[in-house]
């Protein structure tokens, strides 16, 4: 058995690279692009349904602003209701440079508990990334705990190779740790 599941303070980080083919019908040539994926898994002391109730709705933006002000300064709803197709404007905290970007929720799967958001304007796209997306999957471990699998997928233009170190799953790990603390604190007696 994987020991990282035994100790909730441990997380597993995986990096994988896969190829995506874009077909250009005008010249019928295939261009290969490399998509890199960085993942982390964090155990959360709450049922998957409760964790998804946090991650899977537009209220997740409020949670992020309240619990991670050192990372997220503001999330403004531009379009949608939190479901697939929703567009938000995210502003990082000043200590992180105050970067701003528009993010679109490209997939919300309530049955599989998967949420994928992609930068569509600004942010890392201005720094040479052609794709930058965030993926969250809530996996049921047992009746009282779940796993948050957080991933970043990106493509970096060759001329921007020096910016590779900007790609990081660390902010998503911070989000999972905040969720873990939130659920741990929710289990504590109120009149202690």
UniProtKB/TrEMBL annotation:
Residues 34-162 form the Bet v I/Major latex protein domain. Keywords: Alkaloid metabolism. GO terms for molecular function: abscisic acid binding; protein phosphatase inhibitor activity; signaling receptor activity. InterPro entries: Bet_v_I/MLP (IPR000916), Plant_def-hormone_signal (IPR050279), START-like_dom_sf (IPR023393). GO terms for cellular component: cytoplasm; nucleus. It comes from the Eukaryota. It holds the Pfam family Bet_v_1. One of its GO terms (biological process) is abscisic acid-activated signaling pathway. Belongs to the BetVI family. PANTHER family: BET V I_MAJOR LATEX PROTEIN DOMAIN-CONTAINING PROTEIN, OS08G0374000 PROTEIN-RELATED. This is S-norcoclaurine synthase 1-like. It comes from Cucurbita maxima (Pumpkin).
